[in-house]
Amino acid sequence: MFESCQLYLSRYQLAAHQRPIFFGRLGEALLHNGRREEAVDCARIAFELRPQEEEVANICAWIFSNCGRWSEAATAYEQLLEIRPGWAEGHRHASGSFAAAGQLDRAIFHASRASDLAPSAAEFATHAACQYEAAGRYEDAVAYLVRAAAVEPADSRVLRQLSSAKFALGHCDESVELALHALALAPEDRFNALHAAELLLRSGQLDKAADVIHGAVTAHPDDHVALRLLSAAEMLRGRAEEALDFIDCALAVKSDTPEYHLHRANLLYRLGRLDDAADAFGRAAELDPTNPDAKRSQLTVYYDSGRFTEALAIGGELIRASPENEEYAQAVLQVLNRRFEALDGEYVVLSERGPRPRWRPRPRANFFEALQTQSRVIHALIIRETRTRFGDSKLGYGWALLEPILHILMLSLVFAVMMHGQPPIGDQFFIFYYTGIIPYHLFVHTSTSMTYAITSNGSLLQLPPVGTFDVLMARGLLELITDALVAVILLAGFAAIGLGAFPQDLTGVFAALIVVWLLGCGSGFLNAVVNAFSKSWDKIWAQLTRLLYFCSGIFYVPGMMPDWIRDILAWNPVLHGVDWFRSSFFREYEPHWLDRSYLSAVAVATLLVGLAVERALRRRLCEPL
After folding, report:
1. CA 244, CA 232: separation in Å to the nearest integer?
2. Is 420 left (phi over 0), alpha (psi -120 to 50) or beta?
3. What is the pLDDT of residue 354?
4. Max intra-chain CA distance, the chain
5. Helices (DSSP H) in 254-307: which residue ranges?
6. Domain spans, the chain
7. CB atoms closer than 10 angstroms to residue 287
8. Where are the beta strands (DSSP E) in 465-529?
9. Helical pair 429-451 and 573-583, crossing angle rounded to 10 deg
10. 229 Cβ neighbours under 8 A, 6+ residues apart
């Protein structure tokens, strides 16, 4: 056909205004005959000749869209919209083309315009919400989904999408309520059941989630996704055997899904069936060779079951795949240590070997041996954290010095002007602000660093000797060592320039720092647990510590405040830590509101609560869903 049209054009001279329509219609006919590339060529010729003609632009937009030329389709639709600016469907088509072309901003503009021009069209509002969700603008998505729900209140798909957007904004209760309403409107829709069940699981309503998924499995017994979700619900309810049965049913339907095998392997590991768990991890690794998690978990299972030869083989594969991965090297070293411990102490010639003695299990380590092992683990973790934090930077440990120096310089320069060169206590601004910054930084650095210890060391927690307590204490001790070194170095620097900064009560300095550090450790344990279950907690804690900066007497003395303000500030234990540290430097400074026993009691109580919470939730902190 294309050749015939070319022959036609060579014999007959078409008028200029006829040629764009001719090529457009030709492209349309070619597309109907399955000749997509030739159709696109004709559409390009037609659009280039006369893009401002509505019929030409309309045909070309249709051809470009159906041939997957999204950028050209979007250009054609925008040309049409210049001719017909109030065309809601045109904005919707343009939005779809821009979205497919990856131009999300333009897609959002046209989607919003389409819905605003036709507010009674639920599909336009839903499409606009999808574009806003893709851009992470969930509040705008909610606004358009509410519009769609008002037009189609019985459309469960709109309610389900609105539920997802609400959940992304952190409105969990509203999200669950909408999901259950969508399920009530269309109980036969499996997606409604799956969505509602997942939200119920995330909100901790395990029994209700299990009931919803049971209904979905009853209606769709071969739905492997529902079976997998039901297995997760039963596992969270502490029913590992039932969870294993359901994941087996899911694998009977969909046996080539690596994640299902990983989940099954974790359940088997929980049940103590280590050989079966190792086989399941191996199957997951076969199905997804690019994912090292399965092999890493398989190494752990082999280690726990005493199959050190197989563990070393898996470790060798991991190191070959990632030779610079320090965690894999540490895991293999741990296996080697245990392997050497299992060997007989005496070596004999093979031909002279007597009967093999009966194997006896190693006695359980006593308290002091266990304490020694844990100390070695924490020591290794401190070295690892030090290299990770300071090894990649040219300044290295210099960064730890830079922060307090900048704080002290800034405060000294600003308040030297405001206070006409005289600090509230003593003769040197540097020393006064030093006594405020050091204890404050020790508390903030310790509590904040420990907040991320569990979430950033998930892979390390799969090593048998490493627990959540170990990674938390390693970070806490590293902060104590770092901030103590910084304090000593700054003090030596002040003395070197003639500021005479030696404390009057050295015992009080040490006591104040230790108690403040214990308070930071207790807060760090609590923060780490909360942050493991609520990913936004770290941002909230950052704002709280900024507030503490102004409420802890760092750059002022609480005695400068009115009595009623000082009485409120005195509830802040960090303020007592700062004043305890400061009073140990200045003999004349002994504030009557300083209560060392209050600070010590709060620090010990916070630490005990943090340790108890970490111990109670240790299994959930270490194990994946």
Report:
1. 9
2. left
3. 43
4. 110
5. 258-270, 274-287, 292-304
6. 256-343, 367-622
7. 17
8. none
9. 140
10. 194, 197, 198, 201, 213
Averaged pLDDT score across all residues of the chain: 82
Closest CA to 110 of 136, 137, 82: 82
CA-CA distance, 262 to 264, in Å (whole number)?
5
Is a pLDDT exceeding 60 seen at residue 270? yes
Nearest CA among 409, 405, 407, 384 for reference residue 395: 405
Distance (Å, whole) CA 226 – CA 369: 47
Q: What is the mean pLDDT of residues 117-121?
A: 90
CB-CB contact of 81 with 87 (8 Å): yes
DSSP helix/strand/coil, 78? helix
CA-wise closest residue to 377 among 288, 461, 446, 290 = 461
- Summarize pLDDT for 492-539 with one digit per residue, the tens: 888 888 776 678 888 999 999 999 999 999 999 999 999 888 878 888
Which architecture characterizes domain 256-343 according to CATH?
Answer: Alpha Horseshoe (1.25)
Residue 578 gets the label, from left (phi > 0), alpha (psi -120 to 50) or beta, of alpha
Question: Tokens standing for 461?
Answer: 């927690």
Contacts of 460 (CB under 8 A, 6+ apart): 327, 381, 466, 471
Q: pLDDT grade, residue 346 (50/70/90)?
A: very low
Q: What is the pLDDT of residue 320?
A: 77
**pTM value surpassing 0.70:** no
Percentage with pLDDT > 70 across the chain:
85
Cβ contacts of 84 within 8 Å, gap of 6 or more: 54, 90
Question: Is 574 in contact with 519 (CB distance < 8 Å)?
Answer: yes
Residue that the structure tokens 């924490």 belong to? 378
Cα separation, 174 vs 182, whole angstroms: 12
- How large is the angle between the packed helices 36-49 and 19-32, nearest 10 degrees? 160
